UniProtKB/TrEMBL annotation:
Protein name: Nuclear transport factor 2 family protein
Top-rank taxon: Bacteria
SnoaL-like domain segment(s): 8-127
Database matches in SUPFAM superfamilies: NTF2-like
Length: 131
């Protein structure tokens, strides 16, 4: 049996893995419908998962594809049925014919669901200070 911290780490690693495989269905399934998103490269807060899915579709129409994603320096902080997961993330993407690798820091807030799953309810992505 896993501890809550191990469960959150597994949920976070699963989210990172499917993102790195550009498996958008599994990736978005890791977020609650009411999840919010704050990204350094998007001017406004995305108010829910549907808003992010719409933006993702626009990116894909422009040739967006996630090629790989690596998570390091992970930390889980538990607060009852909520958990804060922070990590450094290295992402390799393609937009059309251009490829780029970004070094970012990310915070994902998870909420424990009935039935035992941890679902992401907020994501905040910022540039790593080394950038």
């Amino acid at each position: 049996m896993m501890t809550p911290e191990q469960e959150v780490l597994a949920a976070a690693q699963g989210l990172v893995n499917v993102f790195g495989q550009h498996n958008k269905e599994a990736y978005f399934a890791a977020f609650a419908p009411e999840a919010t998103f704050v990204f350094h490269n998007v001017p406004e807060r995305l108010a829910n998962r549907a808003a992010y899915e719409s933006l993702w579709a626009v990116w894909e129409a422009d040739g967006f594809r996630v090629l790989a994603c690596e998570s390091t320096n992970q930390l889980v902080q538990l607060y009852g049925d909520m958990a804060i997961f922070t990590h450094d993330v290295k992402t390799h993407v393609r937009f059309g014919t251009e490829e780029a690798v970004s070094q970012e820091r990310e915070t994902i807030v998870f909420r424990h669901q009935q039935g035992g799953a941890w679902l992401a309810v907020h994501e905040h992505l910022s540039l790593h200070a080394a950038n």
